[in-house]
């Protein structure tokens, strides 16, 4: 049974489930939970560190700089929620947001736009925070790939045969 047929079988069983069926999958546990906690602490620290510069940027008319700092935090928060969630739409949202984060880190590692403040998680490829945002982003993408329900079903099917 190939990986695509395993995912098709999983999708077919989900579509055929009765309306009152419940999802028995667990939320993120183990190293994904540790990774989510590290990301949460990083976001909380970035919020603390960026509050005064962001307010100063707003008051001095640099609204784009402030908006980019706030947007980087919001992207991280929604991506973390999507990573810890089991739903298909939230996982897709997390995939797209972590991928966008990785792209932003790649671009800002070589190009330092003036509209991204140094306190932003996106500045310099995460350089302000010792590149921890870049590492966490890559690990989150690995986690999403590894915990893909279709891949888990395929691994379980191979283990049973």
How would you describe what is shown here?
This protein is mainly alpha-helical and about 160 residues long. The chain has helices at about 5-15, 30-60, 65-85, 90-110, 130-145, 150-160.
Please summarize what this structure is:
The chain is mainly alpha-helical. It has helices spanning 3-16, 31-59, 63-84, 88-110, 132-146, 149-160. The model has no long low-confidence stretch (mean pLDDT 86).
End-to-end CA span: 10 Å
What percentage of the residues does DSSP assign to strands (E)? under 5%
Radius of gyration: 19 Å
Tally of separate helices: 6
Note poorly predicted spans: none
Principal-axes shape call: elongated
Percentage of residues assigned to helices: over 70%
- What is the string of helix and strand elements? HHHHHH
Derived from helix and strand composition plus strand pairing, the structural class reads mainly alpha
Mean pLDDT: 86
The main β sheet shows up as: none
Number of strands: 0
